[in-house]
Design goal:
about 425 residues, Rossmann fold, 5-stranded parallel beta sheet, 12 helices, 14 strands, signal
Length: about 425
């Protein structure tokens, strides 16, 4: 009798432990971005920002749904759309329901198509695509879908803000546009031509070219063409090693005008420019760090640097992704019903740690937020690359792109 009683208690205890473990199972987020190759530094920095945001903004506060923690699971896509699709399938096979990616709109285009098809064929295994940095406008226009959410301002919204600044500078009469030869680079060039034509039709575009992404070892020939063109300013959407190579070649060959960029900052980039970039490099983006908009943002930036001294908060929107996802899961009351979570995300208004609000526009799942024009300079509180140089806000467009048009015709489940 005792033996039977002990077995019953043991079985009950095992069931309780099993139920508790299942209840507290982590909510996994697949991070699919380059962790090797020429853009590894950018991908690794993004991974660390996700890990830090998950821990600081969710896990340390008790998690979601009564104790579930966020866990970031890295997948190296080698900046390849084909490899990204392989890693997507691996993540799905592991039961991961949230996919985060940002580096390369070419990759994002492949992922959004694959996720849309997967969710249609597998309604019981649906996933959400959390796009934190791929800004090809097509992703929230003709290619929009219910499962995709973009937390960064798209290329058109950023160029609209950037050209507002250029339009106010009468000394700029000639502009050279250069970028990487893929969907994002083409989108940047098209937006620059469009908005400059609307705001400053007198400006002459003296160059508009694309170069292979991640393959140019020496940008000197491009720099010489830019200088010989007589350009007063340069516009580029280059990122990672391509931004470093192009920017340094332009400055080292004697260019004195402003370089208007999307990604001329953060790990491996800011230190490379140093003093040479002061007064020249301008960047359009979201997420104010200098000056810190509030004590919470200041403390967050300080704590991140203490944990990851060799990395930077170059993509502050990642904090918004994590907080908004946690809020959506809580509102939906589930971490497995992707329809309910997506409906909680769309239309959400979120008070960003970086000041201002983020509004997930429901008609196209494009995040609307403050967009800033930054200057590369010294004397900032939170520098990049431990270089003494960082980004300082020069001007702000509040809730940029709020009324921007979209061709999105979203089909909802």
């Amino acid at each position: 009798m005792r033996k039977t009683t002990r077995f019953g208690l043991s079985a009950a205890l095992a069931l309780c432990i099993g139920a508790s473990a299942a209840f507290a199972e982590n909510i996994k987020i697949a991070f699919i971005d380059p962790l090797s190759g020429p853009f590894a530094a950018t991908g690794t920095d993004g991974l660390h920002q996700y890990e830090f945001a998950a821990e600081e903004l969710v896990n340390k506060k008790g998690g979601v749904l009564g104790g579930k923690k966020f866990e970031i699971v890295p997948f190296d896509n080698k900046i390849s759309p084909k490899e990204s699709l392989i890693q997507l399938q691996v993540a799905i096979d592991q039961g991961i329901r949230f996919i985060a990616q940002g580096n390369s709109s070419g990759v994002a285009n492949a992922l959004t198509d694959a996720i849309k098809k997967h969710n249609k064929r597998n309604p019981d295994k649906r996933v959400l695509f959390l796009n934190y940095s791929a800004v090809d406008p097509a992703l929230t226009n003709d290619k929009c879908n219910f499962w995709h959410f973009r937390f960064d301002a798209n290329a058109d919204i950023k160029m609209d803000a950037l050209t507002d600044v250029i339009a106010q500078k009468p000394e700029i009469k000639k502009v050279y546009i250069i970028g990487q030869d893929y969907s994002f680079g083409k989108a940047v060039a098209a937006a620059a031509v469009k908005f400059l034509g609307q705001k400053r039709p007198d400006i002459e575009i003296v160059g508009n070219e694309l170069h292979p992404i991640g393959k140019v070892k020496d940008f000197t020939p491009y720099a010489r063409k830019i200088i010989s063109s007589g350009a007063d300013a340069v516009i580029t959407g280059n990122w990672g090693s391509d931004m470093v190579g192009l920017g340094k070649a332009i400055l080292e060959n004697g260019f004195k005008g402003p370089l208007y960029t999307y990604y001329a900052a953060s790990t491996g980039i800011t230190a490379a420019f140093g003093e040479a970039g002061k007064g020249s490099l301008k960047l359009v983006g979201e997420g104010q760090i200098n000056p810190p908009p509030n004590d919470r943002a200041d403390a967050y930036a300080t704590a991140f640097k203490a944990k990851y001294p060799d990395d930077d908060l170059g993509q502050p929107r990642i904090a918004n992704v994590i907080e908004m996802l946690a809020k959506a899961i809580e509102q939906a009351g589930t971490d497995t019903d992707m329809v309910a979570i997506a409906k909680a995300l769309e239309g959400m208004e979120h008070d960003s740690i970086w000041g201002g609000k983020v509004w997930m526009r429901p008609q196209d799942h494009q995040a609307i937020q403050n967009v800033h024009i930054f200057a590369h300079t010294d004397g900032v509180k939170h520098d990049f690359d431990n270089s003494g140089y960082g980004l300082l806000v020069e001007s702000t467009v509040e809730m940029a792109g709020k009324d921007s048009p979209t061709t999105c015709k979203m089909k909802r489940p």
